[in-house]
Amino acid sequence: MLTDTSYFLLTSLQVMSALFIFVIGVGALWTVYAFIVDSTQKKRAVLRNYPVIGRFRYLFERLGEFFRQYFFAMDREELPFNRAQRTWVYRAAKNTDNTVAFGSTRNIATPGQVMFVNCPFPTLGEDAVPAEPLTIGPHTRHPYTTAALYHISGMSYGAISRPALEALGAGAAKAGCWLNTGEGGLSPLHLESGCDLVFQIGTAKYGVRDLAGNLSDERLREVAEHPQVRMLELKLSQGAKPGKGGILPGAKVTDEIAAIRGIAVGQDSISPNRHPDVGSTEELLDLIARVRGVSGKPVGFKTVIGAYGWLDELFEAVHRRGPASAPDFITLDGADGGTGASPMPLIDDMGLPLRVSLPLLVDKLDEHGLRERVRVIASGKLITPADVAWALCVGADFVCSARGFMFALGCIQALQCNKNTCPTGITTHNPKLQKGLHPPTKAERVAAYAQNVTEEVGTIAHACGVRSPRELRRFHAQVVQPNGLTVGLDALYPKPVPRSAVAPGRLQLADTACREGQPA
Length: 520
Known about the structure:
Layout: H1 2-40, H2 45-49, H3 55-72, H4 83-94, E1 114-116, E2 134-136, E3 144-146, E4 150-152, H5 162-175, E5 178-180, H6 188-192, E6 196-201, H7 217-224, E7 229-235, E8 247-248, H8 255-261, E9 269-270, H9 281-295, E10 299-304, H10 309-321, E11 329-333, H11 344-349, H12 354-367, E12 375-379, H13 385-394, E13 398-401, H14 403-409, H15 431-434, H16 439-463, E14 477-480, E15 486-488, H17 489-492, H18 504-515
Parallel strand pairs: 4-13, 5-6, 6-7, 7-10, 10-11, 11-12, 12-13
Antiparallel strand pairs: 1-14, 2-3, 8-9, 14-15
Protein name: FMN-binding glutamate synthase family protein
InterPro entries: Aldolase_TIM (IPR013785), GltB (IPR024188), Glu_synthdom (IPR002932)
Keywords: Membrane, Transmembrane, Transmembrane helix
């Protein structure tokens, strides 16, 4: 017995020794090969000057994202969303305890921070009421009424995976919120969920286009006939890429996606940077009227505000045509919005942030007397109850988020949305990666997240002394200034004077100043 054991151990040592020598030999051969390749190539100066060793630079760059996310960055340091924000969403989606102890890790003295103003006599639980229903497009043949505050923003099927869409749809149905289809067309998965849908018409008219890429009334009518399609949204631009169309990498364009969109399999799908048939305010209103006439349902548009004088032009055109010509809603995205793929100059440097543009839009609607006619939907990096409460204070009617619900699905902010390598199966069509996303489980988390956001927005509202989130106003929040003092939102954005109360000469001067980029 002892002899057999000794023989086994000796043989094992010989095998491991041979394996070790083999690995060392392969490593040495690879090092020689890499040295020759690196020292003779002409594309990378670091590798040419430091053969083999220079390769570690690229390895450390890849590992740097991982170490910053999990080891080195503080809870409030990361972008676009820090660990504290993501953790709140994860806990809300799992319906676990979301309380914290000892004190806030947020630096409340940072300029720009929003602080809500608590009331000495907050609303009692028995006096609180849920958010009241609001109707969008009351003059259409099929108006849409909903009480839900928080909804799922546009994410195209193709940009996100099948299991992700299944989970989002089922979760939206359970939570009672709507799901925006994104610009990738209407798929059977959208309809199977049973949730309310906002059908988005992108610049390429996916799903409602003819063979030449133009809007087809027949296809549009087919889409609108589905009772689940409650509204239609013309996408003019989105926050992370204003002035550029959508990008779907060819690796994500499967046979199924190609059939839904009407495009070629395996080729990059790039939308025009604007609707070819909309080159002016008048043409935009024409298209809104056409889509509304064919569908009979509320129609609005999604945009990022940059040239603010354009709003005056738009609303003046509405008055010339009559209030019925106005969009039924405007979805406002900010420069802080998200995307699957965008050039860095656009994602970093183009468009106005939502903190600037949302008050501007609401005030312009008030100024032109259209606030009750046009509903405002805020979208762009609003994933926590405080974000949503701020938007309601400023004047939004509804709030939408895409990335918040991606976190609810399990997104870890790996920043690989454009590479078909998403490790959580959300933005990939790789079956091996998709299998980690279990739609029934994630649907429960999507619903819980939406419900917990709404519940905690109510908590903020009650602390401010109002009964319902929709009763929040600008005087309920203050903004920290560089000197450490706070100023109310109502002081930063005072109620505008209606145009009917302004002298014509003064009004003309204000319009000229706005269009020339000067303060009005």
